[in-house]
């Protein structure tokens, strides 16, 4: 009998445990349901919708190469899937486990809604190890990255990699599919995605091409990863987020590289697993500060309460803070939907500490603009920078954007993304003096020292209250 494959952020044919199991069990009906408008879900951001469109388009072509069709549906996922199961007489729906709270709920609801004779079969496919695998001696999940990562390494290697199904058969009659173009996932007027389209190649094949390139470069990762001016990170994050490639595939491909670079890269992949583990334990983590000692209502300057603060938030969003490294990052984000990790930290810290604006405004902006926007990774990293999360209290640790810019040699990066400053010499580019600053580039929105003192004072006042 037919096997339905419910695809979500696992848009690949190879190493897809749900698809693999389904294809072995019978003719398959792969389905993607667009359903992100309900309360309790995070609606996809603009950049995510753009990526998703292209990723589904390439996935449909990959199925096409096997003479198979991908079915697209829009609406209530549980009803649609249960209805498909009833109408096609499917004996199972296969899906890879997802851990966003709304996906966990949908998995539970679907189990109950399925017709008799149809089972929900959940598989593990998107992480090095299923979240919850690494636990402390007493069996509880880890909260802190370092012990988590040590425990995960002890449990490695990850599962074996699965091939793509050799043949894919489908039932003679397929349920109808929507037309992707009708979903309106792409921007129209204005089309803000032109630079994104030039920058990225999307889909499973593109992810593997990038991995081929990366296999020759991972050795330099240890030194290169902090330098935004050079292309020395993998840029696999959107491919990983959308599941065009799995971390297990990356791990097996690179494991024999016995370099420091590979070891550090492996730690970053573990960060991705870690973020998911945190989300599983604390489903509201991306929505509110974790630490009880942080009073969000007291600590932050709230943009809803004053137009000056709102203007500052917008200056940050559009890369007009007067801090070249921050502005370069925010403009890179807007242009290509991705920002270098070192600069993500600097830009996030600037919003939180220098502008003293609630991290959740930044998290939302990243959610809307990143092509790798990931509920767990974004929330965990924002709370990490804010010092409001499960880690030791880091709020008073304030990054100095100007010295970070010099230390990590960001001159080339600034020249690329802030063209007004392209002609400044290295001695001026990180922190342009009033004399050298071009008239179309803004003065600093706030001085570093003043901002630092304000943040520490606000923190003290919140604690003393
Ligand atoms: P590489 O350096 O090549 O790392 C390889 C992979 O490891 C990445 O593709 C990613 O999947 C994973 N990874 C690396 N660093 C982290 C990390 N700190 N946390 C979790 N996973 C990591 N990453 C996202 O995938 N989605 C997000 O929404 C996201 N939001 C972030 C927000 C802030 C404020 C910060 C500071 C970081 C955020 N990151 C996020 C983590 C990190 O910046 C990106 O994963 C990385 O820059 C992606 O580029 P890359 O693929 O070249 O990374």
Name of the level-1 CATH class of the largest domain: Mainly Alpha
**Termini, distance in Å?**
65 Å
Strand pairing plus helix content: what structural class?
mainly alpha
Bound compounds, please?
flavin-adenine dinucleotide
Second rung of CATH, namely the architecture of the largest domain = Orthogonal Bundle
Radius of gyration: 23 Å
- Secondary-structure element order, N to C: EHEHEHEHEHHHHHHHHHHHHHHHHH
Given as residue ranges, the uncertain stretches (5+ residues, pLDDT < 50) are: none
According to DSSP, the number of beta strands is 5
When the domains are counted, the total is 3
Specify the number of helices.
21
CATH superfamily of the largest domain: DNA Cyclobutane Dipyrimidine Photolyase, subunit A, domain 3
Protein name: DNA photolyase family protein
InterPro entries: Crypto/Photolyase_FAD-like_sf, Crypto/Photolyase_N_sf, Cryptochr/Photolyase_FAD-bd, Cryptochrome/DNA_photolyase_1, DNA_photolyase_1_CS_C, DNA_photolyase_N, Rossmann-like_a/b/a_fold
Pfam families: DNA_photolyase (PF00875), FAD_binding_7 (PF03441)
Keywords: Chromophore, FAD, Flavoprotein
């Amino acid at each position: 009998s037919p096997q339905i494959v419910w695809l979500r952020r696992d848009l690949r044919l190879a190493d897809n445990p749900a698809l693999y199991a389904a294809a072995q069990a019978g003719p398959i009906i792969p389905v993607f349901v667009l359903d992100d408008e309900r309360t309790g879900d995070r609606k996809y951001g603009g950049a995510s919708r753009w990526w998703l469109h292209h990723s589904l388009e390439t996935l449909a072509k990959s199925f096409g190469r096997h003479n198979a069709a991908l079915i697209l549906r829009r609406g209530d996922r549980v009803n649609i899937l249960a209805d498909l199961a009833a109408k096609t007489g499917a004996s199972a729906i296969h899906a890879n486990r997802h851990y966003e709270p709304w996906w966990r709920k949908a998995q539970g609801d679907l189990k109950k809604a399925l017709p008799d004779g149809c089972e929900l079969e959940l598989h593990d496919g998107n992480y090095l190890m299923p979240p919850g695998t690494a636990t402390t001696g007493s069996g509880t999940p880890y909260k802190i990255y370092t012990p988590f990562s040590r425990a995960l390494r002890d449990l490695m290697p990850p599962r074996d990699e699965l091939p793509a199904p050799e043949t894919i058969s489908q039932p003679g009659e397929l349920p109808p599919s929507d037309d992707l173009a009708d979903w309106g996932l792409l921007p129209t007027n204005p089309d803000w995605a032109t630079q994104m389209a030039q920058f990225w190649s999307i889909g499973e094949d593109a992810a593997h091409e990038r991995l081929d390139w990366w296999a020759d470069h991972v050795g330099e990762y240890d030194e290169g990863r902090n330098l935004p001016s050079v292309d020395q990170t993998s840029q696999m994050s959107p491919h990983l987020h959308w599941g065009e490639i799995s971390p297990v595939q990356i791990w097996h491909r690179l494991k024999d590289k016995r370099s420091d670079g590979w070891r550090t890269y492996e730690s970053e992949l573990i960060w991705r697993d870690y973020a998911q583990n945190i989300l599983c334990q604390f489903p509201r983590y991306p929505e509110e500060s974790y630490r009880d000692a942080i009073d969000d209502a007291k600590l932050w300057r709230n943009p809803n309460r004053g137009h000056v603060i709102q203007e500052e938030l917008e200056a940050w969003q559009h890369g007009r803070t007067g801090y070249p490294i921050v502005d370069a990052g925010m403009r890179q984000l807007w242009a290509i939907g991705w920002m270098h990790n070192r600069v993500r930290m600097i830009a996030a810290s600037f919003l939180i500490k220098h502008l003293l604006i609630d991290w959740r405004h930044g998290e939302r902006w990243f959610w809307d603009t990143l092509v790798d926007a990931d509920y767990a990774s974004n929330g965990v990293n924002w709370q990490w920078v804010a010092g409001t999360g499960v880690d030791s209290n880091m709020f008073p640790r304030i990054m100095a954007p100007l010295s970070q810019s010099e230390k990590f040699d960001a001159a080339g990066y600034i020249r690329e993304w802030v063209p007004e400053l392209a002609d400044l010499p290295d001695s001026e580019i990180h922190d342009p003096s009033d004399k050298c600053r071009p008239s179309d580039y803004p003065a600093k929105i706030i001085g570093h020292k003043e901002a630092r003192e304000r943040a520490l004072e606000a923190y003290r006042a919140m604690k003393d209250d």
